[in-house]
Prior knowledge:
2 helices; mainly alpha
Amino acid sequence: MCRSIRTLRPPMAPEVGDEDIRAAALQYVRKVSGFRAPAAHNRAAFERAVEAVAEATRELLDDLEVRGGGGGPPRASTRS
Length: 80
């Protein structure tokens, strides 16, 4: 697990924006690919991967049902 990716679900993070989700997606793709920044010939594939991971993360966070654990205030949807 990437240590710099933080938990984005409530109640750990009651306010999560698109920037938080994209940062987590970018860290994940960097870890999996082994590249901090892609070479020019891999840039499009790298960006597509970041966007796909970010969208999957948005869907996951929007669909999760958190029970118990002293949940924080309701969170607005992150879907655009």
